[in-house]
Amino acid sequence: MATADSQGPARQARAFQLARRPKLWLLPTVLCGLLAALLSLLYMGGIVNPTGHLHRLPIALVNEDQGPPPPGRTQSVGALLTGAVLAGSPGGTVDWKQVDAAGLDDQLASGKVYSALVVPKDFTAAVTRLATGQATDRPTLTVLTNPGLGSLGSSIAAQIAQNAAHQASQVTGKELLAALPPASATATGPDTGATARLLLADPFAVTTRIGHPIGSHSGLGLSAFYYALLAVLTAFIGGNMIHSGVDGALGYADSEIGPWHTRRPTVPISRTQTLLLKMIMTAGIMLVTTSLVMLCTVGILGMDAPHPAMLWLFAYCASLAVGLGVQAINAAFGGIGQLVSMFVFIALALPSSGATVPLQAVPGFYRFLGLFEPMRQLSDGIRAILFFDARADAGLARGWIMIAVGIVLALAFGFAMTRYYDRKGLHRWTPQPSD
């Protein structure tokens, strides 16, 4: 009986013939469709309506007014204004933090508030002059922004503070007009009295300025997010490249570069020792990638980085945590490990980072993810280093803690799974019996 070899090369399959098989299409179509739907819902679900999902966005409210209460009132105008602001805020959308001037500086410098509304020291005196016709300009309230927390978050908070100031101005103006005797508005002449009443209808002007400046090479406050993204992406992609490269070098996977295909002899090695090798290589290679990221961004592009040594160390440890996590997941889940790690470190992490859209402006599901997803912890830590003088209470302490937790979890989970597989005799260098 003739064999295939004696008859010549076996007949090769044709692409169009195979494409007619429905079963060949089924699994890839279902998986790709699910992936597209999940990514769309995850990414767009966190940004389509930030103002509609506001939940306790922190904004400072500072009343520096030192003037005595106006005639017939028991409170200064500044106290009336702050009371109107607090009463006019929709429930649960804004977390107004009432602080003094020193507390405001600390809140801005630690990234605890996105904006601030400040009532000046001479506010009551200025309003009194306005009510008696001795002034022609409205007293001014100041809205301070905090661009280090991101341009979008700072902009939303500043807009909220401005709207609150305008609404409180109208409410307070009505109270002042109601308490104003007719003769007081005309004491200096009918025209002046009419002007005073007109100004008192909306007595306060609002001006906006930066409360905590950042450098001009900071991407309008977004450089922290993109630097954190670089740390995660280089670790995620690099970790998967290390995983594939080691498997190819040890003979557990084919190596293909263009038309060249090789399969090395299999090296007998346990799953635990393979994972240890990949983790050692990850720790070494992350030293190179972290240094190159800093060289390119800070050295070549000139990104503002006031604490470069701290930035490098934090970014390296962050990349190490992600890289070790990638190796642990790949070791545990095998062929689908890259997809699982992509969801853990990319798909779920980006929309819950709070770096572009504040966590206070996303649905509750993303706020929950932000408690443990790595991107939020890393971006907060890098933001503290870049914009808030590396203060621990600006997110840096939490970042360090979560990096340590991530490294411990990666080591514990990865080696627990590989040791379990090794004890069960599920070696990679021998074919496994089918059920």
UniProtKB/TrEMBL annotation:
One term under GO cellular component: plasma membrane
Record's subcellular location: Cell membrane
Swiss-Prot/TrEMBL keywords: Cell membrane, Membrane, Transmembrane, Transmembrane helix
Family: Belongs to the ABC-2 integral membrane protein family.
Regions crossing the membrane: 24-48, 224-242, 280-303, 309-333, 340-366, 399-418
Matching InterPro entries: DUF3533, T7SS_ABC-Transporter
Pfam families tied to this protein: DUF3533
Protein name: ABC transporter
